[in-house]
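Action item from last week, closing it out:
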Amino acid sequence: MTQTYRASSLDMLRSDSRIVTVLGPADFGDLARVQSRVLALASIGPATRLGLRADQSSVGWVYEPERVVEHIAEGTAVGHEQLTKELTEFSHASVPGIPLRIRLAGRYLFLDLNHGLGDALLPVDLFAYLADARPDAPLPAWADSPVDGHPLRKALLRWVVRNPRKVVDTIYDRVRPGTNPESTTMATAPDTASTTAFRPWAPSAAVATAVTQSGTTDAIRRWRETHLPGASVSA
């Protein structure tokens, strides 16, 4: 039976964009291993996000884990010098109605993911599991963990607790009549049409590839812990 889950505001905000990336060289095994591992993750439940697709008739996600393998395919093996060209072509073939596409190309794995399914951490976690060379690699812990809420809520709550006076001032400025210069200017300004020229928008995919030396990530982490201990991982 098809199950439907309501999409959050953050899901809908991200769902018009894609995360398209490639990782390697790594031991991803053969196509059957990639498909079986992605299917195993998707079948755990909607918390892994991989078995979800957008329901075009409602504001929600449809959970159909068995369909996750429909767009996992194998292509010709590629080398590093071909990645820019191949990733560009792969990104141009992206289809909004397909939540997840994976292409195995030798020791490289291409991923095209609906951004509404998750942030940049999801591809990292997924790649790590798919590149685990152990034939009996256990399911990762994150797959059956509850999904955390948006970090902005925690950050906003922390700011409110630390700055109660600013909250009061902000509310008071909003409800106190006639003291907001911006609102006064807007009220007295003549109603004139904008002179800004209209330019239709269209996506223009661009690809950048880079190779980092082994240990670079650890070195950045150590620098952050020493110089900016309060900075988040995203920052």
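Closing note: The CA atoms of residues 46 and 63 lie 6 Å apart.
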